[in-house]
Each structure stands twice: as C-alpha cells, then as structure tokens.
C-alpha cells in the first residue's frame, strides 16, 4: 500500500510539473538576442519588482534630499530611454545607506546608495553604474534567475514525493543549487557590464570613465564600513578582472570620445553636504549599548550578540541564533492597543499579562508562545510609551533555548530607557564637503591644510587620487568633516 501511495503522489507531482512547464515562456531577449527561460510575463515582472520595492524602502529608507533624488531619477531615465525596454515604469532611488552598492529589481526598480554616490567621481562614472543595473533589467536577469530557482526547487520537491526513501536527499540537493547557479550570476554580471557600456555610450557619456568605476570598487574592499545593505563585493564578482575586460571593450569601440560627457565638477557639486558613512542620528552602538538621539532612547543588548540597526527596528541575535531581542516602533496609540494587535497574529497564544513600568515609562508586558509546522518559540513582549510613541520590545527564543536565555532576554527589555546624555543627544553625522583648490597641491598637502575626519587611504579613494598626486589649481576636492 505504501508503494501505491508514493506512486500516486509522484503522478500528481508530475502532472503539476507538466502544467507549470506549459506556462514557461522561452523567448528571445531584446537586449541580448538570446533565448531565455521565464515563468513571468512583463506584467508579472513589474508586479514582482513593485512589491519588493515597498519592502526595501520601508526597511532601508530613502535619502532625504528631493533634489538629489530627482537628479538620479533623471539620469536613470535618460539612460533607460536608450535601452531596449524604454517603456518599463522605470524607477531610480537613492537609499539612505553608507554601504557602497547599487542593485536592480525586476520591472525597472533601481537603487543606488548614498555611499556609492560619495565614491563616484563624475556623472559619467555614475552613468556606468546605473547603466549596468539597467542592463540587469533589460536582460531580465532577475526573472531568469527566479525562474531557474523555481524550477529547481520544484524538482527538489518532486524528489521528496516520488519516493519516501529519497526524501532525505532533498535538503542536500537544495544546498547545491546556489553553486549550480553561481556561474549564471557571473555571466549575468559580465553581460550587464556590456549593456551598461552600451547605454552610457548611446547617452553621450564618455565610456572611458567606466573602467575607473571598478578601480574605486576594488579599493572599497579594503576601507569600506558596514551598512544595512551588503557592500558591492558581497553581491558582485571581482572588480579587478572586470576593470581589465571593460578596458579592452572600451578600446575596441569605434568613434572619438574626446567631446563625450564626463561632467566631473557638476556631479561633485551635487554631493556637497551629503551625509558620509553611518548616520548616528538614526542610532548607533557603543559596545553593546544602542543609543538613538532622534528618538531619544537607549537599550542595552546582551554582550557578544550580533546586532543590526534597520530603518524600522534594532535587534540583537544570540551567537547560537536561537534567541533574538528586537526594539521597533508600532502604530498603536497605547501599549494595550499594541498588545491586542500583536496577539492577532495567527499561531500566537497569549500567556500571563501584567503592567510594570520600565524606568518610569508606562508599559504592558505579555508572555507568549508561537507554534506552526516548522517552529516552536517562546517569548516575552513589552509595549512601552515614550515621547508620544509606543515601542514594541520583543524577546523570543526557541522552545529549547528559552529557559537558558530568558534572563538575558528580559534584562535587555528592562534596559529600555530615556536617552538623556547631552553628548549622545547632540551627536552629528559626518558630511562630504567640497573645496576648490586656490593653487596646485598634493592630496597629502590638502589633508594637512583642510583635515578630513577619515583616514588618508579613504580620502584618496573617494577623490580618485594618490596622496602624492599633484592636483591643479581650481580642482574640486572632497573633504569629510563632522565626525561624532
């Protein structure tokens, strides 16, 4: 009987697979001229990007500079108009993140970080980066990769139902899928480089500036700081090899580019005053303590835990990844309303509930358990009113770890307090400033006359110059000031 049940499940899965394959579109991509696998039509592709865009904006946040946002949007649309898919609802946004990165979502949603903007040296360089991301969209790389993974994961699921004895290998097969598709990802990156070069050249920008982008990105690996997003090297192949390949591609291009657009000074002037590096106004760590000057609160996380400061929350994860503490804002008007909303979540069961102030702040406390098919969790959640807003203080652990972690978790929740230290409340971010040289000088001499609050190695990187290089009179030079 068991054998017949497996055969029935296998037949059903085979039918499901066949039905799915009937919906596959294998068409010629307009940007690459190649046949391409896709489970999503253009309308579905756009919807996929739109939904992800909402999550990215909510979790990372946009940089608060309408003029800079409009500039990047305009530059992006100029480049997209020269692509093979000009009619997509293109969107170009600057994310408020210090990481040096840019990325694209299906359907035409493209992002650059303020960290990347501070490292680019001209409009032509930025057009090379944005053109590269446009290339990912026009070549439908995201759709193609999502389709491959859907097909592969369906195959892994099919293994599980064809024969119960084979089900144990499904997890192992899943682990290998990332490696299987790695080469496609690298091919996609090279293809996007070529398309970016195509679009910037069509738009009138000097293609000889594009290899310099990879020189900067290679230097970032040694000096960049962290952000909410991963750095460029976490999501892209080796920039050194890409520099050499693109340089050869540029050399082979026909035409004279001596009058092509670079626009160094015009681009740099748009960066004057841009926040550089982490913005402590949005919260920062001092050891295991997190301080948020704008929201005026402090919380102490367990020592040695991995911390993360997101746009809407701050959290810490235990070394064994079996426990979490998180502080986030709610939309509720009172702690009691926030608690009622929290327990509307399916799978949550409410335990003891009590009221107990936290450092003089009114709070509502609750114990809870969470169960679903895959997990069993226990936790404590407190809702506290501070400065007219209600915060959710969450402590959760796996059922097995709760007794061991409960004390540290609830101690972290109880540490939430008003931030009253004037030094912390008045902390300010660093900003990028521009100085026009009155006379020729080296970058080292510039640092001595106009000190920056960053190391010389980083100053040289963002200016695209070596410390000993002599810079002509009138040159605009980036400077970073205002360290906390």
Write the layout of secondary structure elements.
Elements: H1 2-22, E1 25-28, E2 35-38, H2 42-59, H3 66-80, E3 91-95, E4 102-105, E5 109-113, H4 114-119, H5 123-138, H6 141-162, H7 170-202, H8 210-223, H9 232-235, H10 239-251, H11 264-271, E6 275-276, E7 284-286, E8 289-292, E9 297-300, E10 306-309, E11 313-317, E12 323-329, H12 335-342, E13 348-355, E14 363-371, E15 376-386, E16 389-398, H13 402-414, E17 417-418, H14 422-425, E18 430-436, E19 441-442, H15 443-449, H16 456-463, E20 470-471, E21 476-481
What does this entry look like structurally?
The chain is α+β, with helices and mostly antiparallel strands. The chain has three domains: 35-270, no CATH class; 281-425, Mog1/PsbP, alpha/beta/alpha sandwich (Protein Transport Mog1p, Chain A); 429-481. It contains 16 helices and 21 strands. Helix 1 runs antiparallel to helix 6 (141-162). The longest helix has 33 residues, at 170-202. Mean pLDDT is 85; it is low at 1-11, 17-22 and 156-184.
Distance between the termini: 71 Å
Number of strands: 21
Low-confidence stretches: 1-11, 17-22, 156-184
Helix content: 40-55%
- Walk across the major sheet and give the strand order: 10-11-12-16-15-14-13
Mean pLDDT: 85
Q: For the CA atoms, what is the radius of gyration?
A: 26 Å
Shape summary? globular
Number of domains: 3
The biggest sheet amounts to: 7 strands, antiparallel
Which percent range describes the beta-strand content? 15-25%
Number of helices: 16
Content-based structural category:
alpha+beta
Concise account of the structure shown:
The chain has 484 residues and is of the alpha+beta class. It has 16 helices and 21 strands.
């Amino acid at each position: 009987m068991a054998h017949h049940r497996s055969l029935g499940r296998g037949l059903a899965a085979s039918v499901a697979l066949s039905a799915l394959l009937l919906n596959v579109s294998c068409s010629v991509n307009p940007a690459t001229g190649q046949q391409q696998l896709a489970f999503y039509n253009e309308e579905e592709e756009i919807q996929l990007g739109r939904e992800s865009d909402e999550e990215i904006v909510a979790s990372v946040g946009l940089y608060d500079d309408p003029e800079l946002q409009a500039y990047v949007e305009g530059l992006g649309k100029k480049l997209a108009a020269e692509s093979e898919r000009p009619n997509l609802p293109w969107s170009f946004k600057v994310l408020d993140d210090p990481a040096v990165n840019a990325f694209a979502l299906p359907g035409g949603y493209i992002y650059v970080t303020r960290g990347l903007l501070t490292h680019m040296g001209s409009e032509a360089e930025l057009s090379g980066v944005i053109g590269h991301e446009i290339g990912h969209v026009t070549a439908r790389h995201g759709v193609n990769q999502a389709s491959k993974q859907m097909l592969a994961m369906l195959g892994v699921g099919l293994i599980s139902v064809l024969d119960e004895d084979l089900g144990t290998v499904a997890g192992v097969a899943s682990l290998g899928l990332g490696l299987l598709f790695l080469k496609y990802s690298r091919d996609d990156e090279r293809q996007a480089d070529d398309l970016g070069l195509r679009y910037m050249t069509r738009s009138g920008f000097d293609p000889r500036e594009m290899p310099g982008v990879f020189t900067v990105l290679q230097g970032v690996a040694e000096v960049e700081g962290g952000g909410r997003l991963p750095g460029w090297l976490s999501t892209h192949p080796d920039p050194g090899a890409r520099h050499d390949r693109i340089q050869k591609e540029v050399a082979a291009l026909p035409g004279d580019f001596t009058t092509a657009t670079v626009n160094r000074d015009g681009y740099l002037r748009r960066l004057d005053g841009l926040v550089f590096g982490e913005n402590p106004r949005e919260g920062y760590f001092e050891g295991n303590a997190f301080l948020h000057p704008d929201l005026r609160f402090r919380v102490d996380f367990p020592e040695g835990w991995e911390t993360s400061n997101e746009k809407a929350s701050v959290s810490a994860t235990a070394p064994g990844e079996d426990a979490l503490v998180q502080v986030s804002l709610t939309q509720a008007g009172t702690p009691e309303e926030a608690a009622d909303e929290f327990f509307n979540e399916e799978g949550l069961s409410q335990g003891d509930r009590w009221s107990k102030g936290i450092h003089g702040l009114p709070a509502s406390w609750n114990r809870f358990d969470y169960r679903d098919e895959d997990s069993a969790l226990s936790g404590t959640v407190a809702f506290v009113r501070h400065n007219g807003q209600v915060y959710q203080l969450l402590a959760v652990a796996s059922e097995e770890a709760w007794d061991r972690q409960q004390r540290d978790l609830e101690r972290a929740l109880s540490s939430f307090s008003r931030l009253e230290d004037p030094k912390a409340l008045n902390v300010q971010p660093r900003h990028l400033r521009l100085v026009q040289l009155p006379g020729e000088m080296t970058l080292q001499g510039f640092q001595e006359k106009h000190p920056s609050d960053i190391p010389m190695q980083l100053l040289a990187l963002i200016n695209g110059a070596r410390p000993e290089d002599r810079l002509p009179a009138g040159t605009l030079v980036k400077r970073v000031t205002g360290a906390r």
